[in-house]
Fold this sequence. Notes:
The chain is mainly β. 10% of the residues lie in helices and 27% in strands.
Amino acid sequence: MSANPPQDNSQPDAKERKIKPTVTLKVKSQDGSQTYFNIRKTARLYKLMDAFCTRNSQDPKTLAFLFDGRRIKQEQTPDELEMEDGDEIDAMLHQTGGSMVAKT
């Protein structure tokens, strides 16, 4: 009788691997152009912001990113903001000041 050598089961098959959930988000700039990103739900959104600025030759300090009308903080994640596939992020030029000067 020959004994079968033990099988190496150290590598899980595709079904056993944990697939990290991702979400596809659309970033829309003020000129109407759209860029799509596929990002892990637990990834910090600064990665998306930096990638958008790099692709569009923008300085990250000049843009504000908004989701549902609220500014996104760099350390937030899609999970924290309850983002779903297809949600839209607005990339707006950051404006400082803007008060009117009254004539006398």
